[in-house]
């Protein structure tokens, strides 16, 4: 059967969409194919601050790690990737895969205390679960500016430390399942798994000021079941 140009075009677009979703790329993190099922974790009510922090950690893939320079003590930040477990199993444990060639890694090995900032702005897809949409449905944060308080963001404070031997398998599974290309990164860069042990979370997800969440409350909270 000979396909007309319009049919070829539509088929190509469909294949691109399917590849984009199945690959689990940033920009489709609210609908990632896992074991044949599309998982969507509902956005918590803004009053559920600890749950919101856990949801943000699971729904995002990367953030800004802020450290203190090992020599001068000046603040130095950079973008890194994270994972808190399989797409289907949010744990709240913040794992990283970083190299000692990176100045951020060098800094935390001397000054482990740091902060890690993430934003709902990177979460693409249907905006219906954001309380303020306007005409921006389908855009990040429903079309809100990244600085708008209704576009949730969190800074997680604590100590970034190498993962203990007994947790290496969990860390590897968490990182490589959400960032599969990491498995092929060069071995001579000596990437290692780290974990941010969260002691406090500064969260802004609505108007009226930031909430401070203890590490205990953060870990005790749970992400709502996927639908």
TrEMBL record:
- List, alphabetically, the InterPro entries matched: CREG_beta-barrel (IPR055343), Split_barrel_FMN-bd (IPR012349)
Spans traversing the lipid bilayer: none
Provide GO CC annotations from the record: cytoplasm
- What residue stretches are annotated with the CREG-like beta-barrel domain? 44-219
Domain of life according to the entry: Eukaryota
Q: Pfam families from the entry? A: CREG_beta-barrel
Q: Return the protein name.
A: CREG-like beta-barrel domain-containing protein
Q: Which organism is it from?
A: Volvox reticuliferus
């Amino acid at each position: 059967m000979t396909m007309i140009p319009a049919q070829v075009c539509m088929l190509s677009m469909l294949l691109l969409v399917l590849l984009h979703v199945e690959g689990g790329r940033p920009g489709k993190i609210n609908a990632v194919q896992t074991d044949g099922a599309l998982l969507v974790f509902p956005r918590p009510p803004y009053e559920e601050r600890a749950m919101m922090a856990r949801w943000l950690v699971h729904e995002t893939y990367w953030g800004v790690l802020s450290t203190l320079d090992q020599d001068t003590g000046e603040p130095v930040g950079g973008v890194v990737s994270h994972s808190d477990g399989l797409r289907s199993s949010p744990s709240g444990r913040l794992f990283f895969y970083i190299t000692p060639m990176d100045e951020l890694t060098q800094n935390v090995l001397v000054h482990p205390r740091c902060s890690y900032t993430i934003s709902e702005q990177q979460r693409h897809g249907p905006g219906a679960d954001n309380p303020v949409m306007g005409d921006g449905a389908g855009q990040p944060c429903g079309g809100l500016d990244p600085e708008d308080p209704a576009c949730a963001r969190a800074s997680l404070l604590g100590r970034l430390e190498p993962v203990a031997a007994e947790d290496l398998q969990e860390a590897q599974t968490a990182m490589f399942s959400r960032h599969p290309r990491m498995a092929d990164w060069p071995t001579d860069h000596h990437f290692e798994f780290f974990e941010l042990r969260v002691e406090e979370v500064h969260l802004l997800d609505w108007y009226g000021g930031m909430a401070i969440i203890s590490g205990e409350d953060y870990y005790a909270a749970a992400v709502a079941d996927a639908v």
